[in-house]
Amino acid sequence: DVATLLGYYAAEGFAREQETPKGTIHQTTICGTEAEARDFFVETLESAFGVAPYRENDAKVTVSGRLLRTFFDTVLQAGIYAKTKRVPQCIFDAPDEIVAAYLRGYFSGDGSADSNALEVHATTVSRELKEDLLALLTRLGIVGSATITDQVPLREKFPDDYDIDDPSMSARSYVLRISSHDAVEFAEKVG
């Protein structure tokens, strides 16, 4: 369960340290649009880490406290922002079942894996995470590839949220793809 949670964190999580008028706060958050995923986050955080997560809203499960943030940031070196995400070394050192659990969490959070359509893909803005994920897939005998997407004006992607003259651009991202032949292997080994 922890490996799956770490995969979800790589896909949809972040950690932060923030100064407030009352002092410094430390938070670790994992986002999930499905209630089942959020339930899993809460249960795993409680059972594996002994912390008291709370549901910040319909998408976020958050844990306040320095210990968990430091664990993800400093001990695991998993990254705290989308661009700094990495697969922790302990996942590389783990048995294949743990690697598969991590990939299951990641692709559940940041991609899609549809065994009926024989298509698997995910997106990340972290070059290092892209390389790490491709290495894990290769380890399991699954061939993946990556392409780079161009930056686009955010006003085009989110017209309701950006003014027409806002120059903000999306981040360059990497799309990981697994061919239809290897999608079968993915479904069997990762789930």
Task: Describe this structure as you would to a colleague.
- It contains eight helices and eight strands.
- The protein has helices at about 1-10, 35-50, 65-75, 90, 95-110, 125-140, 155, 180-190, and strands at about 15-20, 25-30, 55, 60-65, 110-115, 120-125, 145-150, 175-180.
- The longest helix is centred in the N-terminal third of the chain and has 15 residues, at about 35-50.
- Helix 5 crosses helix 6 (about 125-140).
- A hairpin with a 4-residue loop joins strand 5 and strand 6 (about 120-125).
- The model has no long low-confidence stretch (mean pLDDT about 90).
- It is globular.
- It has about 190 residues and is α+β, with helices and mostly antiparallel strands.
- The two termini are about 15 Å apart.
- The strands form two sheets. A four-stranded antiparallel sheet has the order 1-2-4-3. A four-stranded antiparallel sheet has the order 5-6-8-7.
Distance between the terminal alpha carbons, to the nearest Å? 14 Å
What is the count of β-strands?
8
Order of strands across the widest beta sheet? 1-2-4-3
Into which percent range does the helicity of residues fall? 40-55%
SS-derived structural category: alpha+beta
Instruction: Tell me the quaternary state.
Output: single chain
Uncertain runs are none
Q: What is the alpha-carbon Rg in Å?
A: 17 Å
